[in-house]
């Protein structure tokens, strides 16, 4: 019954009733009521269509924009009007797609006149990270009465617009001191001796030592054999593995999975602030799992922004890659959401067991499911503690 009683049908029926009453009674007042209601009905149905006539949307710039979660973004869309009469209260809808997840952003323009092209998108805000591609632009208007919502889809010429929404990093207090790992290309000189170009010390030769370490110039000066030691070069290094969320957590800014991405961004910032080299191992399938890990600091945030959903098995495989590449003295950060299954956490930590590295498990909780998943997060922390792994339990503000 509610489907039949729409506003348009009710108004048309009311106009017809007034028309019949006016013809039967021949009353000027009823005629006036009929004409007044008919005029309002016609304006309510015709003006929305007239408002969208002569409207077009063009690109101010093309390419990929980069913005942080929650920040205002200039999409570069300009609305132009070619007819004389102005359009009022025009809704501009932009539809975006990323990883099978679609979202619609709406913006209302109060008035659009000929020759004055308003720029859209300055107030557009993306609430969750991702690599969004523009798939559709629609115009809608219900002015002046809202009886009819006229819609018009723009031609498919805006597919070149994409927005890279970077995750908003969450502040992290790293629980352990940073250690130096041996690295011939590093910039830090350790206290250990090894092969490098940085001379550490000279000492007297002892019986049985290799003559390859003898400094013949220094020996000639002092008249006895002298051994030369070189300082070993090292670097601060952090290897990062993140469990990216899948549906329905994907794209939900209040989920624990998306909070894990923000926590991973905070871990990267904390490591880079200490001068550490961060190596990110994406947990993905197909061709993505065979790609080399991301080591460029400028690409880390982009890699986290476009991280695709990962399964527990893919998380375990990423941890296995880290275990194969890790060296003594390095640190490993395993970032997971608080709703991860305990068995999956145990499988991931098993790949990192018995490594000469420091492992830190970072567990993220979102504000939406903080109470629901807190018990599971505490179990994950207990599993990490049993494996001798330090933990960071971070809840969204």
Structure summarized in a few sentences:
With 397 residues, the chain is an alpha/beta fold. The protein has helices at 7-25, 28-52, 216-222, 256-273, 297-305, 312-325, 342-351, 370-386; strands at 55-59, 63-68, 72-73, 77-81, 87-98, 101-112, 119-120, 124-125, 130-141, 150-153, 161-166, 181-182, 188-204, 226-235, 237-242, 277-282, 331-337, 358-365, 390-395.
The class by helix and strand makeup works out as alpha/beta
Q: What CATH architecture of the largest domain would you give?
A: 3-Layer(aba) Sandwich
Return the string of H and E elements.
HHEEEEEEEEEEEEEHEEHEHHEHEHE
Number of domain units: 4
Q: Please name the CATH topology of the largest domain.
A: Rossmann fold
Determine the mean pLDDT. 81
The gross shape turns out to be elongated
Main CATH class of the largest domain: Alpha Beta
| DSSP strand content | 25-35%
In words, what does this structure look like?
By secondary structure, this protein is α/β, with parallel strands linked by helices. The chain folds into four domains: 7-52; 55-166, Immunoglobulin-like (Sandwich); 191-235, no CATH class; 237-395, Rossmann fold (3-Layer(aba) Sandwich). Helices cover 30% and strands 33% of the residues. It has helices at residues 7-25, 28-52, 216-222, 256-273, 297-305, 312-325, 342-351, 370-386; strands spanning 55-59, 63-68, 72-73, 77-81, 87-98, 101-112, 119-120, 124-125, 130-141, 150-153, 161-166, 181-182, 188-204, 226-235, 237-242, 277-282, 331-337, 358-365, 390-395. Strands 2, 5, 6, 9, 10 and 11 form a six-stranded mixed sheet that branches. Helix 4 (256-273) packs antiparallel against helix 5 (297-305), helix 6 packs parallel to helix 7 and helix 7 runs parallel beside helix 8. It is elongated, with a radius of gyration of 33 Å. The two termini are 46 Å apart. The model is unreliable at 187-199 (pLDDT under 50).
């Amino acid at each position: 019954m509610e489907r039949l009683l729409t506003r348009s049908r009710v108004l048309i029926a009311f106009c017809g009733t007034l028309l019949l009453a006016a013809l039967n009674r021949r009353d000027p007042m009823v005629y006036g009521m009929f004409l007044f209601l008919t005029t309002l009905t016609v304006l309510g149905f015709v003006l929305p269509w007239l408002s969208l006539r002569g409207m077009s949307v063009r690109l101010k710039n093309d390419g990929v924009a980069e913005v942080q979660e929650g920040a205002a973004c200039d999409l570069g869309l300009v609305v132009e009007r070619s007819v004389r009469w102005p359009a009022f209260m025009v809704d501009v809808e932009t539809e975006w797609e990323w990883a099978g997840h679609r979202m619609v952003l709406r913006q209302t323009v109060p008035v659009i006149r000929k020759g004055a092209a308003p720029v859209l998108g300055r107030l557009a805000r993306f609430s969750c990270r991702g690599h969004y591609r523009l798939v559709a632009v629609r115009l809608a208007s219900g002015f002046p009465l809202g009886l009819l919502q006229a819609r018009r889809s723009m031609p498919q010429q805006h597919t070149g617009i994409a927005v890279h929404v970077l995750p908003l990093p969450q502040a992290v207090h790293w629980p352990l001191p940073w250690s130096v790992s041996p690295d011939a290309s590093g910039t830090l000189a350790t206290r250990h001796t090894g092969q490098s170009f940085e001379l550490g010390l000279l000492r007297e030769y002892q019986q049985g030592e290799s003559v390859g370490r003898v400094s013949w110039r220094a020996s000639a000066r002092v008249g006895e054999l002298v051994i030369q030691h070189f300082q070993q070069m090292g670097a601060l290094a952090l290897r990062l593995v993140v469990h990216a969320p899948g549906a329905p957590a994907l794209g939900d800014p209040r989920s624990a999975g998306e909070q894990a991405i923000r926590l991973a961004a905070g871990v990267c910032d904390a490591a880079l602030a200490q001068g550490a080299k961060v190596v990110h191992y994406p947990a993905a399938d197909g061709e993505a799992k065979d790609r080399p890990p991301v080591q460029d600091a400028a690409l880390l945030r982009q890699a986290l922004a476009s991280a695709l959903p990962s399964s527990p098995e893919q998380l375990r495989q990423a941890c296995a890659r880290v275990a194969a590449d890790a060296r003594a003295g390095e640190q490993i950060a395993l970032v997971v959401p608080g709703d991860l299954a305990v068995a999956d956490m145990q499988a991931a930590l098993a790949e990192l067991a018995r490594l000469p590295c420091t492992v830190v498990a970072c567990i993220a909780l979102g504000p939406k499911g903080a109470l629901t998943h807190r018990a599971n997060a505490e179990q994950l922390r207990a599993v990490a503690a049993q494996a001798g792994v330090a933990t960071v339990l971070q809840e969204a503000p």
